[in-house]
Amino acid sequence: MYAEIGHFALILAWLTALAQAVLPMVGAVRGDTALMAFGRSAAQVQAILIIFAFGLLMACFGLADFSVELVAEHAALNQPLAYRLAATWGNHEGSMLLWVLILALFGAGIGRFGDNLPPSLQARVLSIQAMISVAFLAFSLFTSNPFSRLSPAPLDGAELNPLLQDPGLVFHPPLLYLGYVGFSVTFSFAVAALLEGRADAAWARWMRPWVLAAWIPLTCGIALGSFWAYYELGWGGWWFWDPVENASLMPWLLGTALLHSAIVTEKRQALAGWTILLAILAFSLSLIGTFLVRSGILTSVHAFAVDPERGVFILAMIIGSTGTALGLFAWRAPLLKSGALFSGVSREAGLTLNNLFLMAVTAVVFLGTFYPVIMEAVSPADKISVGPPYYNLVFVPLSVPLLLLVTVGPMLAWKRDGLGRVGAKLKWPLLATLALAAGLVALFGLAKTVAALGLALGFWLILGGALVLARRWQGAAGLSLRLVRTTPAAVFGMALAHAGLGVTVAGISTMSGFAESKILVMREGETAALATMKVTLDRVGEAQGPNYQAFQAHFTVREKSLFGADSVRNLDSERRFFPVSRNQTTEAGIGTSLLGNSYIAIGDQQNGPRGPGLVVRIYHHPLVGWIWFGGLMMAMGGAASLADRRFRIGAPLRAPARSAGPLLAPAE
Question: Which of 87, 95, 508, 562 has the fewest CB atoms within 10 Å, counting from its CB?
Answer without folding.
Answer: 562
